Amino acid sequence: MKLKLSLLFTLLCVSTAWCSIPPEQAAAMRIKAEMEFFDIESVRQAFNDFSRTPLYDTARYGALMKELEQAAKSGNEEQIVKLKREILLSNPLLDNAKVIVGRYRIGSKARSVMAPSLGTQNNNWSNQSSSARKGFDAEIAELSNLRGQIESRTIYKPKHSTSVTDMLLHWDGERILFTAADENERWGVYEVNRDGSNMHKVIQSEEPDLEFFDGAYMPSGRIIAMSNIGYQGVPCVNGSDQVGNMISYEPETGAMRRMTFDQDANWHPRVMNNGRLMYVRWEYTDLTHYYSRFVMHANPDGTETKALYGSGGWFPNSIFDVQPLPGGNNTFVGIISGHHGVARSGRLILFDPSMGRKETKGMIQEMPFSKREIVPIIKDELVNGVWPQFIKPYPISDKYFLVSAKLTEDSLWGIYLVDVYDNMTLIAEFEDEGLINPIIVNKRPTPPIIPDRIKPDDKEATVFIQDIYQGEGLPGVPVGTVKKLRVFAYEYTYNTSESDHIAQGIQSGWDIKRNLGEVDVEADGSAIFKIPANTPVSFQPLDEEGRAIQWMRSWVTGMPGEVVSCVGCHEDQNSMPIPKRVIASTKAPAKLQTPEGGVRSFTFDLEIQPILDRNCVACHNKDGASPDFTGGVKVVEANDATAGSYGSPSRKAESGRLDLTQSYLNLHPYVNRQGPEADIYVMKPYEYHASTSELVRILKAGHHGVELTDKEWRTIYNWIDFNAPHHGRFVHNKAWFSPYDQYERRIELANKYANGAGVEWKRELEEFAEWQKNNPAPAAVRREVEKPNYKDVSTKKFPFTEAEAREMAERYGDERRTIEIAPGVKMTFVRIPAGTFVMGNNNRGRGNAPASVVKISRPFWMSETEVTNRQYNVFDPSHDSRFTAQFWKDHVGPGYAANRPDQPVTRISWNQAVEFCKAISEKCGVEIALPTEAQWEWACRAGSETDFWFGDINADFSKQENMADQSLRKMAVSGVDPQPVSEDNWVFKYYTYMPREDSVNDGTMTIADVAKYEPNAWGLYDMHGNVAEFTRSTYAPYPYKGEPEEGNDKVVRGGTWDSHPKNSTAYARKSYLAWQPGNNVGFRVVIEE
Q1: Average of pLDDT values for 574-602?
Q2: Of 428, 354, 444, which is closest to residue 396 (Cα–Cα)?
Q3: Partners of residue 1073 on adjacent β-strands
Q4: What pLDDT score was predicted for residue 711?
């Protein structure tokens, strides 16, 4: 046995001189690891595939298959592994094959280390600029005699201790591109011939501060690589890691051009079979950053950049090491991994974007687990504890792959042949070493050259949108609703500079948003317009008042002279667009309508504070009404002498020094916004529409006669749509790797390598401030508001007691009625008697007055609870109410559940609620409808004339309703997988901003399951809280005169889990458009007889 194990081991180890454990033990460990993944049927499938190849020695290996079957029956593991290896390495694709690898001599820790010890990045958010630059014993080697005793030949071994990584073999099979650090520990892209000759630096640059890495050959002869050319830092770590964006380099001329202008890293460029370029992009402009590394594809000149896989999906967190499969389609292989935890390695997946482009829809199979369902797990450390671990796959056909793998926790990193039949066969491993980045040596067809489509001297690109209503972005929104597009550009953070999610304000986002202007959208939803080239640009579709209907939360970068064409808003790339003539196609591209005062980033002090000064501060000041909107008063933390100056690098999230004004802190709580890390999925239109913000509702109601100008309204809407930022500026410190001023150097490099695309955002703000001085706003216009003199109204039989209410319902017989709308799914209704009551309130806001006497002529049945997710899914099984957004960052999931079966359905529109009623009516043979707002208020009151059915505005509601209470303090969270913070944590005071009633604790922070609280006298639950409810009624001013004519504005009644009690009364009313979904709005239904 010892002799056999030693012989087996020498097949796999060039020399035992490096081995620190006995050969017999190493061989036994390998046998044990390989047996964990052995399946005789998988071997048979691969053998049958080999047998279809001409000249394959079927007789010889067929005999070995029979031996393997006998060994499998007898359980002879050593023989099983030996025979399996011999059969699977008989793959004709390996005939006389040689494999290039990165070979790392590690020492005694070789069995415990993970991928970073083999030259990769230390985590999943950085690129090579953050990787170790020394301390390796590495070389590029060529392995041969793969079916016997492995022979290894050194191609290139650095004279110093750098890694050799990102290796790529040219299509000619003779030249190798790779990344290494020079003697000064600066990263560069190098090339060496396979025979070891002509080793040289490929990218030569005159810029001493620029580094280059992760290179790729282009069919045209160019080199694509990543560089720190943007002077950007990774936002979520305050710029402590540099961001690598893509550049194009001409080896013959030395010409260089920046190609991507992305917020965060680009990785692993590779040429696809069609000549296009694929790469990985990490982005999180208002997305959850743990789950947003997507595969992109573009022409080699950067035009026609589009998402290839992953955009808009939660799973997986990361896709790395993408490689196109040989052939004529877009299938590719890649590694999926997490955010924290195991770095760079992970699970091995085959992708086919034609089957779907997100989550598991386009995942063909996981290797070696084709029989196992790929479950879309939402988890931060996605591949911790997962074995085997894979990295750097290389397809040698559409069925067979070379890959570096570590099978078990104590295995070495070796080179394996993996196939679609679930076989894994060790080709080579060396004790005390790790092998990575296998590439089979062969000559391959060069992909086609796609000619450049850019116009290098052009400073603009053109955007053409065929129909903005097509796609996921605007479902149900009527054509003609979108009047304009707001066009803005992102400006990203600097290196080693405060840039966390609170760098711009509370729940505001990571980046500066520069408002470039607006452009008209045609009546048919088409648009054509110019944008600045080489600039990351985003769009917001606006309604007639200038309010965003949807949020792109990504960007498009037009190359010089490019025509960027979109079918619609978040359209499915797998759907074939229907060519059609649209209005925009008959027009010349429009110029952007530049903001008054010029292009600039949005800052609270220059945009919003002047509106407060003009309209609010006369009353709302330190000596007047609360809250105080006086400008310029900075919040200074204890022991913080540096806070207060925009020029001071004092905005540090960790210490709580946010450099915010008191007026901002007092105003932003009245703004409903998504925050910096919203749901990865495309949001519902209107989900954070300005009309859902209490600030807008207060001002629209005529707050003390304040009358804003149209410009002021649009500015406030812009602020809300940009996530209510404060700063609109970055503090930029000195970069550790550079002697230059980062602000100036970024501009200089962009002008030099991106055709004048440098952004002078400081100058823009200075010029706007000067423009404001020269163009003062007119004096405030305040309408004298007389105190309304509403006539008190009453009726004899109202109010009445709870006992009387119950007695009224009992007169009709049965008080409850149950309808089964699907097997096991029931709806329970309670009897609501006829009667007369006083509707509205003369003392609680103009929208609720004047009160009037209203008669409910006939009794009706009302569902005792809001329609639940379980019930709604009978009508629409695909609907998902999703989650309630979490504050802070570092989210490991979508938020707080809103889609439990017994929670009320949300994120549906009035139109959808009406369709539900129609469908259930037809199915169950009863007339189900939404209640009128009169029916709703009558049923809610159940005889009460007070603010709530259980008392007045100051009543303790803890047992009766789920409204904004002290539970909302738990919304202040921090950390990875954010958890509620203590009151002495600096986060607490900044993130407990939601208006609430602190004297009450109803025990629920967000949306509760229905019927958790006490019902009113008629048996109705959650009338004042949990979620608001659509009614049948069209919104019209009071006094109530019966149902008005049909219109688009629909009445929403009741309060929500996050609405203050004063906004949740029996008479409180809001309006939503018929097609407007709400993340805190649902409905209940009635049966009228």
Answers
A1: 91
A2: 444
A3: 1049
A4: 96
CA distances (Å), 124 to each of 46, 225, 992, in order?
Answer: 34, 19, 32
Query: Which CATH number covers residue 133?
Result: 2.120.10.30
Decide: 274 and 527 in contact? Cβ < 8 Å: no
pLDDT band at 733 (very low <50, low <70, confident <90, very high): confident
Domain identity same for 681 and 762: yes
User: Can you give the pLDDT at residue 639?
Assistant: 40
Q: Are 189 and 292 part of one and the same domain?
A: yes
* Segment 463-472, tens digit of pLDDT: 999 999 999 9
Kindly state whether residues 430 and 482 are assigned to the same domain: no
For the residues 385-400, what does the mean pLDDT come to? Answer: 98
Could you read off the pLDDT of 50-65 as tens digits, one per residue? 999 999 999 999 999 9
Tally of domains within the chain: 4
Task: Please choose, from the candidates 124, 177, 533, 68, the residue with its C-alpha nearest in 3D space to the C-alpha of residue 344.
Answer: 124
State the Cα–Cα distance between residues 388 and 425, nearest whole angstrom.
13
318-324/332-337 β-pairing: antiparallel
* 379 found inside a domain: yes
Q: Which amino acid belongs to residue 598?
A: G
Which of 498, 524, 544 is closest to 727 using CA atoms?
498
In a domain, 791, yes or no: no
Answer positive or negative: Cα dihedral of 163, 169, 175, 177. Answer: negative
**Which single residue is written with the structure tokens 């067979």?**
400
Kindly state whether residues 106 and 81 are assigned to the same domain.
no
346, 375: one domain: yes
Alpha helices in 582-683 (DSSP H): 604-607, 609-615, 662-667
Q: Specify the residue for token string 């797998």.
A: 574
Of 406, 440, 474, the residue that ends a domain is: 440
Query: 856, 905, 863: which is closest to 880 by C-alpha?
Result: 905
Burial class (CB in 10 A: 0-12, 13-18, 19+), 588: exposed
Would the CA dihedral through 440, 446, 448, 452 be positive or negative? positive
Closest-CA residue to 806 (of 1020, 1026, 609, 643)? 1020
Q: How do strand 563-566 and strand 460-465 relate by DSSP bridges?
A: parallel
- For residues 66 and 104, membership in a common domain is answered with no
CB-count exposure of residue 915 (10 Å: 0-12, 13-18, 19+):
middle
**Phi and psi torsions of 458, nearest 5°:** -80, 135
Q: Which two tokens stand for residue 440?
A: 């089979």
What angle (nearest 5°) sits at the alpha carbon of residue 212, between those of residues 207 and 217?
125
Mean pLDDT of 270-289: 96
Q: Is the pLDDT of residue 778 over 90?
A: no
With beta carbons less than 8 A apart as the criterion, state whether 315 and 290 touch. no
| CA nearest to 1010, candidates 966, 974, 1054, 1042 | 1054
Q: Which of 93, 126, 147 is the last residue of a domain?
A: 93
Q: Model-level pTM?
A: 0.94
Asked whether residue 752 falls in the same domain as residue 827, the answer is: no
**Bridge partners of 491?**
512
Domain assignment of residue 415, given as a range: 94-440
Q: Is 451 part of a structural domain of the chain?
A: no
Whether residues 102 and 88 share a domain: the answer is no
Q: Is residue 218 within 8 Å of residue 224, measured between CB atoms?
A: yes
Dist CA 290 CA 282 (whole Å): 10
Q: Which pLDDT does position 328 carry in this prediction?
A: 75
Two structure tokens written together for 872: 């709604």
Give the residue from 357, 279, 289, 293 showing the smallest Cα distance to 321.
Answer: 279
pLDDT band at 783 (very low <50, low <70, confident <90, very high): low
pLDDT at 625: 87
- pLDDT tens figures, 144-197: 999 999 999 999 999 999 999 999 999 999 999 999 999 999 999 999 999 999
Report whether 829 contacts 989 (CB < 8 A). no
- Residue 986 covered by a domain: no
Question: Which CATH number do you get for residue 904?
Answer: 3.90.1580.10
User: Helix or strand or coil: residue 692?
Assistant: helix
Q: Rounded to the nearest 5°, which phi and psi values hold at 311?
A: -60, 130
